Amino acid sequence: MTTFDISGDLQVRRMGFGAMRLPASERGGPANDRETGLAVLRRAVGLGVNHIDTAAFYFFGDLTANGMIREALHPYASDLVIATKVGPRREPGAPMPTGQLAAGELRGEVERNLRELGLDRLDLVYLRPGGIEAPGGESIAERFEALAALREEGLVRHLGVSHVDAAQLAEARAIAPVAAVQNRFDVTQPADAEMLRTCERDGIAYVPYFPLGGFGVPDDARLKAVAARHGATPAQVLLAGLLALSPVTLAIPGTSSPVHLEENVAAGDLALTEEDLRELRP
Ligand SMILES: NC(=O)c1ccc[n+]([C@@H]2O[C@H](COP(=O)([O-])OP(=O)(O)OC[C@H]3O[C@@H](n4cnc5c(N)ncnc54)[C@H](OP(=O)(O)O)[C@@H]3O)[C@@H](O)[C@H]2O)c1
């Protein structure tokens, strides 16, 4: 499996793991089995995954993604990169975030991640502005400045932005280096292609969220045709397609299933051809 150096500093294998689904597969629950989640995390690392994407606002009831990562993997291997996100405000009983944290509240959220993960410094912290609507339309400068100050203080190693448009990325980059962009992207609907090209040009990691479509692997004839040619599953083709798009893309598929985990990690070694990729494009 190929690797990417985040900011020329943290080397990660390009097939990573998204932790959002560990506490519960659906927003409204039920909670997933804790022991299975811990086993998935340990197996992921055993299979060579060394990039885990999480957030303190990924929880269901008492089960938190950060807590599960800590329980399964602490003390962490020296090459494990844990990326987290701050910005959304999620109250304990709410199924999803209901607003955004103000700049002055981001220190508390970074400290919460440090505490929950059992770390002195976070490898990569994304500022995640906005809700579920299309990104953009607001300034992120004040909040990104707050994170840049925490980076200067040594609480954070690298900064990223998530769910942003080109103007917001430019705003952030004028304040501090941006190591990674985490935006929604799926090979069959490449709405964010221009952002990906910017990241590629400037050596910024591009981390598509919802790499498997977010709500179930799409029932797509093109995916099935390419998968059949390789003796692979449609999910594997989606993931391999993301990695084939550019050397800067990192995949973070989310699963709470040991079987899907094996399948997803194996997709890191699935080589798609130019013909496959042409067929997948809309
Ligand atoms: N920045 C943001 O705004 C944002 C938003 C959403 C997500 N994220 C990040 O992106 C990561 C990935 O997103 P996601 O987990 O929401 O969506 P996803 O990776 O696109 O899809 C996950 C869903 O696909 C299923 N799945 C996983 N592997 C599969 C396979 N091999 N075959 C069939 N189904 C499979 C999972 O169910 P099973 O559990 O049954 O496998 C789960 O329901 C998250 O974990 C989170 O870290 C970020």
From TrEMBL:
The organism's place on the tree of life at top rank: Bacteria
Pfam name, any one: Aldo_ket_red
Gene Ontology CC annotation, any one: cytoplasm
Bilayer-crossing regions: none
Sample GO molecular function, one term: oxidoreductase activity
Segments forming a coiled coil: none
Keyword Transcription attributed: no
Keywords, sorted A to Z: Oxidoreductase
InterPro entries linked: AKR, Aldo-Keto_reductase, NAD(P)_OxRdtase_dom_sf, NADP_OxRdtase_dom
Residue ranges annotated for the NADP-dependent oxidoreductase domain, each copy included: 14-280
Protein name: Oxidoreductase
Originating organism: Actinomadura logoneensis
Source species taxonomy: Bacteria, Bacillati, Actinomycetota, Actinomycetes, Streptosporangiales
